[in-house]
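Narrative of accomplishments. A recurring question from our advisory board has been how the design workflow behaves on a single, concrete structure rather than in aggregate. To address it, we present the structure tokens for one chain from the evaluation set, followed by the sequence designed for it. No filtering or post-editing was applied between the two.
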């Protein structure tokens, strides 16, 4: 999977300036799972010295985008992936580097079948953000859609 990882990581860095700004690392990307890391960077700290909630949100959203590209990149000629909504819960103090692990919430074939029927499928991506000791610091659920091209 190293070639798709490189391509998707490079694609994300090239098309999402915020991913470049935060120096996100796309550590693992498959159609079912994406792992993206945010290094500890003082410029993106909050008032208590950990990563700012906005940086954590962007990390998690970027992990969800990477999995969407891995799962549905072959559909880009006929549909545009769009972020619909997100719900995030910050559960523990994040300090130091953090990692987002995203998982696709619906079978790929089911989503593509809806697209084949002319529908605009929606699907969730669930993300856990953890700090170096493995503690989950936040959970995010993102709903994406594939908007059929005209």
């Amino acid at each position: 999977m190293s070639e798709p990882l490189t391509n998707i990581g490079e694609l994300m860095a090239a098309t999402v300036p915020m991913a470049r700004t935060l120096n996100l690392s796309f550590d693992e990307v498959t159609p079912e799972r994406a792992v993206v890391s945010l290094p500890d960077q003082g410029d993106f700290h909050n008032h208590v010295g950990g990563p700012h909630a906005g940086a954590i949100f962007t990390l998690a959203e970027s992990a969800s985008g990477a999995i969407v590209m891995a799962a549905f990149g072959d559909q880009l000629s006929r549909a545009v992936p769009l972020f619909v909504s997100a719900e995030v819960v910050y559960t523990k103090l994040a300090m130091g580097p953090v990692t987002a692990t995203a998982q696709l919430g619906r079978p790929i074939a089911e989503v593509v079948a809806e697209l084949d029927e002319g529908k605009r499928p929606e699907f969730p991506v669930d993300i856990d953000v953890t700090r170096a000791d493995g503690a989950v610091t936040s959970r995010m659920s993102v709903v994406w859609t594939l908007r059929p091209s005209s």
